[in-house]
Design a protein that fits this description.
alpha/beta; 14 helices
Length: about 325
């Protein structure tokens, strides 16, 4: 029996590129209006024990982590990543309502497997369900919008990035698909009027599940500070049992310079111009905001991080 999604979708306003949006409550999650059609299928999606999911708030180091996870589970065939786009190694299930990836090629694959399939039913969600092998599933939806059984069914990796760097990375990203200013991105980020909405809601939904054995939480800053230590933690979680030398190969394969040089290691987003990567550094937002906005954001971070957990990484 299918579950009803425990949220309501309130018609909101239009956003450049994505058109009409809805505000999902509770949570304050801003999503394209097409989400209303796919909310229930995603909430009831059937996960399998060998699935590996990557759930993150956008611009948290998702692409980097996706390549790391894939490389660790394909240690003897990492070279595939140089020719096989990340689009085709992961199922980005949000795309059925976000439409960031061109859908024509997914429909061709779907029609080959299921000639009667309809595009309006979501090509990627259908392809994911039809996949017979191990699945790598990518979503930016918060945990409260995912199947409540997902952590009991399979492993999930979740990455958190400092909100100030996250906001600036979001600005660098959207500035390549729409002409927006940093102050506008700043205001929309702090007021939750941005795709996927409230940063703190997203993080807190993961954080309150942090003790589940099938959830592995990583911080972007820790990954940048000591990637080998983080790879070893991830190796234990995934059960990949890689050697020190193999982990070093993964670190090299997923280094910033290597990924920036290989366009197949990112999602092929329609209309995106220029490099998908900026600097890939901690503190990339430093000095970018006027002092008054910087101070506002510091206060906002301190207040909200403490609500997630008084000992949360960004609370002090």
């Amino acid at each position: 029996m299918e579950r009803e999604v425990p949220v309501s979708c309130i018609d909101a306003y239009e956003v450049p590129r994505y058109g009409k949006m809805v505000l999902v409550q509770p949570g304050g999650v801003l999503l394209p209006a097409g989400y209303k059609k796919f909310a229930k299928p995603i909430y009831n999606f059937k996960y399998r024990s060998d699935d590996i999911c990557l759930f993150t708030y956008p611009k948290s180091g998702t692409t980097w982590t996706a390549e790391i996870v894939w490389a660790m589970t394909h240690i003897n065939e990492m070279q595939r990543a140089l020719t096989e786009n990340l689009n085709h190694r992961y199922f980005f299930i949000d795309n059925d309502f976000f439409h960031d990836l061109a859908e024509e090629e997914y429909m061709e694959k779907l029609k080959a497997k299921c000639p009667d399939a309809k595009q309006e039913d979501g090509p990627i969600l259908q392809l994911t369900a039809l996949e017979k092998g191990r699945r790598f599933i990518w979503s930016h939806l918060s945990f409260d919008l995912q199947n409540p059984d997902v952590l009991d069914k399979c492993k999930v990796v979740y990455v958190i990035r400092h909100p100030k760097d996250n906001m600036f990375s979001r600005y660098m990203h959207f500035n390549k698909v729409a002409n927006v200013s940093l102050p506008i991105i700043f205001e929309t980020f702090l007021s939750d009027n941005t795709p996927y909405g409230n940063y703190w809601h997203h993080v807190s939904e993961a954080w309150k599940r942090r003790d589940h054995p099938n959830l592995h939480i990583m911080f972007y800053e820790d990954m940048k500070a000591d990637i080998m230590a983080e790879l070893k933690r991830l190796d234990e979680f995934l059960g990949t049992s890689l050697t020190e030398e193999q982990l070093k190969k993964v670190a090299e394969h997923t280094s910033f310079n290597n990924m920036k040089a290989n366009p197949s290691m990112v999602l092929d987003i329609a209309g995106f111009k220029g490099s998908f990567f900026y600097k890939g550094q901690v503190g990339s937002s430093k000095g970018q905001l006027p002092p008054e906005l910087d101070a506002r954001m510091d206060a906002w971070i301190k207040e909200n991080a403490a609500k997630v957990d008084p000992a949360f990484k960004y609370a002090s």
